[in-house]
Amino acid sequence: MSRAAEKLLNEEPAKRILLVEDDTGLQRQMQWALDPFKMVAAGTRNEAMRIFEETGDMRIVILDLGLPPDPDGASEGLIILDAILSNAPQTKVIILSGNADRAVAVSAVGRGAFDFISKPIDVDVLKLIVQRAARMFELEEENRALRAFADRRMPGFVFGSSQMQQVAQTLERVARTDASVLILGESGTGKELIARALHETSSRSTAKLVAINCASIPENLLESELFGHERGAFTGAIKQTLGKFEIADKGTLFLDEIGDMPTALQAKLLRFLQSRQFERVGGRTTLTVNVRIVSATNQPLDALVKEGRFREDLYYRLNEIRLELPPLRDRDGDAVILAQHFRNLYNREHSRNLRGFTKEALVALQAHKWPGNVRELENRVKRAVIMSDGPMIAATDLELVSDGKLRNLNLRDHMREVESALLREALAVSDGNVSKAAKLMGISRPQVYNLLGVHKRRA
Ligand SMILES: Nc1ncnc2c1ncn2[C@@H]1O[C@H](COP(=O)(O)OP(=O)(O)OP(=O)(O)O)[C@@H](O)[C@H]1O
Ligand SMILES: [Mg+2]
Questions:
Q1: β partners of residue 17
Q2: Architecture of the domain made up of 3-147
Q3: How confident is the model at residue 237 (pLDDT cuts 50, 70, 90)?
Q4: Strand runs (DSSP E) across 216-345, as ranges?
Q5: Which of 184, 189, 246, 410 is least surrounded, with the fewest CB atoms within 10 Å of its CB?
């Protein structure tokens, strides 16, 4: 790597600029004028492209169109512009042009350049353009980061934590299959949301998702709700009625609060799961449907099985795949990410314009234990958006108290922790053998000794 590129890498990414300009006098002048931005200069296309690759994605490039071997034309500059934008379309390229080729500069903006400025250069104007480009890059990056959290195919399913990343991965994998899925999690962790995402991302999404809440329907009606009934099957059965199983044919049946299903019905559900067949209440014909079963509960189903309150054979049928939703307090960073999501949502819904959360509010969001999980968070933010005087949502608007400090987000601190944990584990697994531990960790023996020293000093 060239020394100039290496030096630039020590600078904050937001402050780096690549200047492509063959006039060394102008190079020096701009370096001085654009402080505090730090510049690396290139005089030719080859040099420019090499530095661009070596330094990784450069945010801002100032590009003189007329470079040797075509100093009076624009061919070299335009090739560089195209190469940069096809590799890294987010780059902000600012074009320097002689007065004569103003038309070319305008067309460069049409090809994706951020802006242009004509020579002789007014450095104050250039400085403004550079600042605007830097700000634009930042805003776009923020946007990209926010969008990356939400999987396009699961709109409304918001997360940033590794814990939920794992859930999303499992979800994606099982969505394609017909396996029965059991979703477990405390109240308000998003079980219904996940059930819907599962259906939406499956090949059954063109058919219906039919949901039934086993806890809210009286026991004597639940059977008919699920399997339907014939006319005259019982008092009040004045006409034939389809059950949820039939309505969900070719789609998904979501059995919510499955832990509350009465024992008698558990047997009938089991029979259906074994044979995919059933009869309507009061009916003799055996019917067959093709439904995928997704069930959910916030009850400890294993414990109910042990106590004999839930059939073990049914439990295994429902539990072909298990998705466990961690409580919100165990999802690193998600409280703040979700809070921003709900702020945007309810700003729109209530035509309000709350711009963000005060520092105290952020601290409180991170510290709160969220016994009601995402539902509690959603309710608090919704109320705050409606009630707050603005422009920022304060901790009191959320009815939370703020005492502690913001969670430590320092990357190096966290890397050290991970490093130390992996080191301890690798040494344990290899029974203290440094060579083996080094191999497991994919580093050299001296590096292991080095880490040992570092972490011993810190301990
Ligand atoms: N990851 C998430 N992203 C966005 N919204 C979420 C997320 N998880 C949950 N929600 C929202 O939180 C609320 C509660 O979620 P949901 O009803 O799915 O929870 P639940 O686990 O079924 O709760 P309960 O056990 O009380 O039935 C809903 O409004 C849902 O849209
Ligand atoms: Mg629910």
A1: 39, 60
A2: 3-Layer(aba) Sandwich (3.40)
A3: confident
A4: 228-229, 241-242, 252-256, 277-278, 287-288, 292-297, 321-324
A5: 410
Dihedral Cα 247, 252, 257, 258, nearest 10 deg: 90
Q: State how far the Cα of 338 lies from the Cα of 87, in Å rounded to an integer.
A: 33
Whole-number Å distance between alpha carbons of 316 and 197: 23
pTM: 0.62
Residue that wins the pLDDT comparison between 397 and 106: 397
Alpha carbons 336 and 367: distance in angstroms, whole number: 11
Do the strands 60-64 and 115-118 form a parallel or antiparallel pair, or are they unpaired? Answer: unpaired
Q: Do domains 3-147 and 329-393 have the same CATH topology?
A: no
**C-alpha triplet 362, 157, 154: angle, nearest 5°:** 150
Take atom 31 of ligand 1 and give the residue whose Cα is closest: 193
pLDDT of residue 204: 92
Ligand 2 is an ion; its neighbours by CB within 5 Å are: 191-192
**Ligand 1 geometric centre to CA of 148 (Å):** 20
**CATH code that applies to domain 329-393:** 1.10.8.60
Find where tokens 């074009």 sit: 95
Q: For ligand 1, atom 16, which residue shows the shortest CA distance?
A: 190
- Locate 24 and state its tokens: 């060394």
Contact 176, 202 (CB under 8 A): yes
> Domain coordinates of the chain in residue numbers?
3-147, 168-324, 329-393, 411-458
- Predicted confidence (pLDDT) per residue in 343-400, tens digit: 999 999 999 999 889 988 998 999 999 999 999 999 999 999 999 998 999 999 999 9
Residue 455 predicted with pLDDT over 80? no
For 278-319, write each residue's pLDDT tens digit. Answer: 888 888 889 899 999 999 999 999 999 999 999 999 999 999
The residues, any chain, with a CB within 8 Å of residue 397's CB and separated by 6 or more, are 361, 383, 384, 387, 388
Instruction: Kindly give the distance from the C-alpha atom of residue 364 to the centroid of ligand 2, in angstroms, as a whole number.
Output: 26
Pocket of ligand 1 (CB under 6 A): 156-159, 185, 187-193, 298, 338, 374-375, 378
Best mutation site among 192, 332, 343, 345 for ligand 1 pocket (most ligand atoms within 8 Å of CB): 192
Does the domain at 168-324 match CATH 3.40.50.300? Answer given as yes
Of 133-147, 413-427, 428-442, the least confident: 133-147
Write the single-letter amino acid at 157: F
